[in-house]
Design a protein that fits this description.
The protein is mainly beta. The protein folds into two domains: 145 residues, Beta Barrel (Cathepsin D, subunit A, domain 1); 169 residues, Cathepsin D, subunit A, domain 1 (Beta Barrel), CATH 2.40.70.10. Helix content is 9%, strand content 39%. It has five helices and 28 strands. The strands form six sheets. Strands 1, 2, 3, 4, 5, 6, 7, 8, 9 and 10 form a ten-stranded mixed sheet that branches. A five-stranded antiparallel sheet has the order 12-11-27-28-13, with no helix packed on it. It is globular, with a radius of gyration of 21 Å. The two termini are 14 Å apart. One of its GO terms (cellular component) is extracellular region. This is DH200=94 genomic scaffold, scaffold_133. It holds the Pfam family TAXi_C. It is found in: Secreted. Its main location: secreted.
Length: 348
């Protein structure tokens, strides 16, 4: 996702993440920054940057924060894959492109200036755009101007075009069309996450009912909202028993030669052959049947080997971004609704 930060505005390409709140970018001075293609943002070369006091509500909302020597807010974030960002909390003018062609500038957006960052980030991204439901999320900060609506369209990992994924806010983010399906968003703790309800998954004509057998540390005391949708997580994570049932059903319906993942990460893999037929999966959310083609559920991990992009987990179940590719996905936080529309995101 591309945003512009500062005055004059500097373009920043960052990862859109519905599973976290704080937006941050790598900043000078860098004590430890990963390599990025774009120039690193310099807060001293913009006229609108200001630091945030460690007594502010924004500092408290970050969660893991402290005071530096100048009584400014210092933050420390870590992610599920052990990536992290450490830096200073600031406020800056963010500029977004609109469908009318005019730029929209929003002053005073709270974000992180990361001086020490590392992990699984690639060189094209300068940081994270936090799209979660928490207080410092950019969605929450812009809630008045965007009416609680945003949508995105994730392009496939392998694509002949160099088109990047798109994100829209406000009225432009409403998902419309005859093939739209919608499911309720369910409010639970923590408020960062977008919980939805998974009822089962079908392989051909066989449906596997979802039973939450996880021992998640999160608030899953009720069956409603048993999975989160997360654009920042690659794979889809399911409770062990449900995953086992899905895997055995897939084995029965796929006529290929089973092999092991050379990386040792994924559980169900096949040798690529001309005659192999992979089934569609239908993910049954409450009120919404989402059809996933094999391009969303299997990924090539090495020459001649493809593997299922679903894995077992003892923690929270997650509908990851590989399963979201080539869908226009709309979040309506006023009406608490999540919508899916199958599209070619390279042409959207």
């Amino acid at each position: 996702m591309k945003v512009s930060i500062g005055t004059p505005p500097v373009d920043v390409l960052a990862i859109a993440d519905t599973g976290s709140d704080l937006t941050w970018t790598q900043c000078k001075p860098c004590s430890q920054c990963y390599k990025q293609d774009a120039p690193v943002f310099d807060p001293h070369r913009t006229s609108t940057y200001r630091e945030i006091s460690c007594e502010s509500a924004s500092c408290a909302a970050v969660g893991t924060s402290s005071c530096d020597d100048g009584n400014n807010c210092a933050y420390r974030l870590s992610y599920g894959d052990n990536s992290y960002s450490i830096g200073s909390l600031g406020a800056e003018t963010f500029t977004f492109k609109s469908s009318s062609g005019k730029n929209i500038s929003i002053p005073g957006v709270v974000f992180g200036c990361g001086h020490q960052n590392d992990g699984t980030f690639n060189e094209t991204a300068s940081g994270i755009v936090g799209l979660g439901g928490g207080a410092v999320s950019i969605v929450t900060q812009l809630s008045k101007s965007i009416g609680g609506r945003f949508s995105y369209c994730l392009t496939p990992l392998v694509s002949e075009s160099n088109v990047s994924s798109k994100i829209k806010f406000g009225n432009n983010a409403v998902v419309l069309g005859s093939n739209v399906v919608s499911t309720p968003l369910i409010k639970k703790n923590p408020d960062t996450f977008y919980f939805i309800n998974l009822e089962g998954i079908s392989v051909a004509d066989k449906q596997i009912a979802y039973e939450n057998s996880s021992s998640s540390k999160l608030d899953n005391t009720t069956d409603e909202g048993n999975i989160i949708i997360d654009s920042g997580t690659t794979l889809t994570f399911l409770p062990q028993q449900f995953y086992d049932d899905l895997q055995s059903t897939l084995k029965e319906s796929i006529n290929g030669k089973q092999v092991s993942d050379p990386n040792g990460l994924l559980g169900l893999c096949y040798q690529v052959e001309d005659n192999i037929k992979l089934p569609n999966l239908v993910v049954h959310f409450t009120g919404a049947d989402v059809v996933l083609p094999p391009t969303s559920t299997f990924i090539q991990v090495s020459e001649g080997t493809i593997c299922l992009t679903f894995v077992p987990s003892d923690d929270i179940a997650i509908f990851g971004n590989l399963s979201q590719m080539n869908f226009l996905i709309g979040y309506d936080l006023i009406n608490q609704k999540l919508s899916f529309l199958p599209v070619d995101c390279t042409k959207y």
